[in-house]
Amino acid sequence: MDCVFCKIMKGEIPSEKLYENDEMFIIRDIEPKAAKHYLMIPKRHYKSISEMTDEDGVAFARSLKKISDLTDKLGLQNGYRLVINQGDDAGQTVPHMHVHILAGQPLDFPDLRK
Ligand code: AMP
Ligand code: ZN
User: Fold this and answer.
1) For the chain, N or C: smaller number of CB within 10 Å?
2) Which residues have a beta carbon within 5 Å of ligand 2, which is an ion?
3) Annotated catalytic residue 98
């Protein structure tokens, strides 16, 4: 499958992997938008929340909790923001479900209507 995250998972594209288990892996984003910018990527390929199965949802909840276990390893002690871009208006560029983990600085929360 021609999916950048599936290729990263198989080691066909290099990445800086910070954590991995049998359900997901966490890499450093190649184009960071904050001082610390990671991606938590479920290993099963599905595009979006609407394609999540019940099992995906359970694994996803476990993966979110795992992020909080990795606070020290990822340097998230001062807080962090999780972002999931879904579809065109959100600017989703990779059609494989993933969570952005943004941290390492005070995170602006702009009024997007402007
Ligand atoms: P999104 O726009 O929400 O779909 O996010 C996709 C993210 O994947 C962007 O922040 C990209 O910088 C990131 N990205 C794309 N290719 C790679 C790669 N090879 N290694 C790490 N991050 C990547
Ligand atoms: Zn994929």
Assistant:
1) C
2) 3, 5-6, 45, 96
3) yes
